[in-house]
Write a structure and sequence with these properties.
With 135 residues, the protein is an alpha+beta fold. Helix content is 47%, strand content 27%. The longest helix has 25 residues. InterPro entries: COMM, COMMD3.
Amino acid sequence: ILDDPDLKDIDPTVLKHCHAAAATCILEAGKQKADISAISACLEDCKLDKERIEQFCTEYQKNKDALEILLGSIGRSPLHITDVSWRLEYQIKNNQLHKTYQPSYLVTLNVENSDSGSHSDVSFSCTMEQLQVLV
């Protein structure tokens, strides 16, 4: 989406925040099984114009069944973190051999799905600031 020529003038940070807000709205509407009038009222409170609200509601209605199936496949309870392991990684050079000197943390969360009893690992890399937000 960042490569879309229509969106090239928009700050990538703002674009990511807008995407996150729209995804949250869609997921909450699906989770609450909200009808079009409730969604419209919420979007009107956010000061969206009528045309955008109608477009959003039309797209939501078209994809509502697929969204409910996706939400149903996730399960009823969130994953439970059973263990955490981490290590500090210090990157000296990147792929283009430019010096970067950036520390980052490699974090692995051991999680358990209480619905199915299955165990799995979730791994990710983050900066010091991101790790502080996570903690």
